Amino acid sequence: MKHKVHGAAEYSMEFEFDCLNLDMTLNPIFVFSTKLVRSPRLRPLIDRLYHHQKLLTDFDAKQFVWLRNVLVLNQLLMREFRLTNRVVEMLPDSKHWPRSTRVILLQCIANMAVSSDNMDVMKMALNHIVSRLGSDDEMEIVVAMQALTNLSINIRKDQIQKFFPVIPHCLNRLWVRGEINLNALRLLVNLSCCPDMVPYLLGNKSVSGLLRILDTDREEVLIRAVTWILCTTSAVDALNLTYDRISEHNLDPFHNLSLTLYYSIYGPKGREELETQAKHLTNHSNKDVASKSVRLLETLANVPPFPTAGSHLNRL
pTM (2 decimals)? Predict the structure, then answer.
């Protein structure tokens, strides 16, 4: 099953699953609505797929489709009981509540954002969710990222300014204690699937060793990393983005282009490393990784090389 988001790049069914948060077993509102459905299959299936980080088998995928249909019914029930609006209304005051209650409320929003019919109501809470990324509590940050991942499936042009502050948080948390942070990477995939968001993304400050995300044995990380770079490069190609068009989004006080994400990926050194990594991955045993790497190389060939130092003198 293939999908397209904003025409930027195709992604496999697995990435749709990233946007359906399965931490609902922790959510009292979800448990309440599940009891209304009273299905003997539902709870065991949720427990089995809970925090599932591996590529799903065909059987699991079919089970997930069934689960998703049940969740849609749950969302209808929650709207019928006006729980959706009430949860959003409680969020501004919840920052003064106990930690466990704040996390549960954020989890409710993350779960409710699974339904596209809830999006307009849920996105009213965007500013408050983004502010939780600055929390001192790790769990609150993780759940806020999950909620933002669900809310960023289809970003409209008029919502870009609300999602823009999310980018530095994602990049700063891409590496946590030497490990790639899947929560940050998932959110970056969704952000890059909105081409109009990509100039903002590329103007942000990069992180050390960025392209090491492609050098991993963890397939669940690798498939997302390749997809993120592919979506970003597809937008650069489709929108004919050069640094001149991205420079206005450079957040460095001195506008140092070498510090930007754009330079880390498409600058001379970064591009050479990216091409080398992508060529190596075209032979990967995972067909999805291999095919995306081939497309990445093809798309990258359409992106003009970064001007070398002193090249501007040729125009004098």
Answer: 0.76
